[in-house]
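for the recovery benchmark. tokens below, seq after
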């Protein structure tokens, strides 16, 4: 059960969610989650594919390698990064060759990872390039399964079985002509971080309260030394938006994911591997072509500087996008936890799902 259904009275920011409350509410964005599990329960992994648009191969990100929003974004296990990288290449060589049988694209795959080795036997290397190819082909704008799915299949968040979560926000604005429009901010998280006692829901210290109840029942207390040996994990946050933003603005937007993460209880400890990535679908720039208004695209001459017309959002009007990004990140993490299910994995290790009933009672008592 997603957090909005579980705790209806919980305030999750000023801006309303989109139709699916998912990153796929952003027009054109496609997602697929592929979950890989073995019958003996020792493999619990997968991958999540995010496409900025169906015809991503036709457009170019003009801001460099790290802003290659025209390439698939793959989220997976730490041990599967190489296969995800190669799988993206194999997809392109299988489906995107030109009439001469050559690859016209400069491929710079974007692959993010979190470690799932506590519940999954990474030594089996279960993810293959075929999984990646199928995931790219099957990406859609439909509602996407959350919790123990995709790259988050083996994830643990604030010591609960969690994984993949989504959320979105609708922000009213205007276009370049001054017409009223709505912009959509969509977020996906692969949540694999956090201590139990730092978990908050709507500002309520749920994790600490649950721990106090557990200690009272067991008549023992977690000492400071015991707490310090527990390491934090990592989280990947991908933000999609259809408002026109320049790369430097997207960098600023991505930083606001840290606000949502902090509201849930993530502190970005020394051992944390937190990654925030944002892309905009607004400016469609043909790959290695120059396109000016009223003119057909033509090849770019790298030795002849040419103008490129793109839109950007006025920095004085950007705060609503910042706020909605933080709120959507917070809710996406909640959904990753609330949609998780108890899992027994590698070596019989079991990670319990969050007790939604207990969390609901704790939060509603303090709203």
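predicted aa per position
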């Amino acid at each position: 059960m997603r957090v909005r259904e579980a705790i209806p009275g919980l305030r999750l920011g000023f801006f309303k969610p989109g139709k699916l409350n998912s990153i796929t509410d952003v027009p054109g964005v496609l997602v697929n989650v592929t979950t890989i599990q073995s019958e003996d329960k020792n493999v619990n992994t997968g991958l999540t594919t995010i496409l900025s648009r169906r015809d991503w191969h036709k457009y170019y990100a003009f801001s460099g390698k790290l802003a290659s929003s025209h390439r698939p974004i793959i989220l997976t296990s730490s041990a599967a990064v190489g296969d995800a990288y190669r799988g993206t290449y194999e997809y392109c060589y299988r489906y995107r060759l030109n009439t001469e049988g050559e690859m016209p694209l400069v491929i710079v795959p974007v692959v993010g990872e979190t470690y799932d080795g506590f519940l999954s036997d990474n030594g089996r290397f279960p993810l293959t390039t075929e999984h990646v190819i199928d995931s790219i082909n099957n990406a859609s704008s439909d509602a996407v399964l959350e919790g123990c799915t995709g790259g988050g299949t083996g994830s643990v968040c604030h010591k609960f079985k969690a994984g993949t979560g989504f959320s979105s926000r609708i922000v009213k604005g205007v276009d370049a002509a001054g017409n009223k429009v709505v912009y959509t901010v969509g977020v996906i998280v692969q949540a694999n971080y956090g201590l139990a006692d730092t978990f908050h829901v709507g500002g309520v210290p749920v994790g600490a309260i649950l721990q106090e109840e557990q200690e009272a029942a067991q008549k023992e207390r977690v000492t400071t030394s015991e707490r310090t040996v527990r390491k934090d994990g990592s989280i990947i946050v991908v933000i999609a938006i259809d408002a026109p933003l320049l790369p430097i603005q997207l960098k600023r937007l991505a930083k606001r994911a840290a606000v949502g993460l902090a509201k849930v209880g993530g502190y970005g400890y020394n051992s944390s591997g937190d990654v925030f990535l944002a892309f905009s679908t607004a400016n469609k720039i043909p790959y290695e072509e120059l396109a000016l208004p009223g003119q057909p695209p033509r090849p770019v001459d790298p030795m002849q500087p040419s103008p490129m017309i793109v839109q950007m959002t006025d920095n004085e009007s950007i705060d609503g996008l910042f706020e909605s990004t933080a709120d959507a990140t917070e809710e996406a993490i909640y959904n990753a936890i609330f949609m998780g299910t108890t899992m027994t994995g590698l070596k019989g290790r079991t990670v319990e799902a969050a007790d939604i009933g207990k969390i609901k009672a704790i939060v509603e008592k303090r709203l």
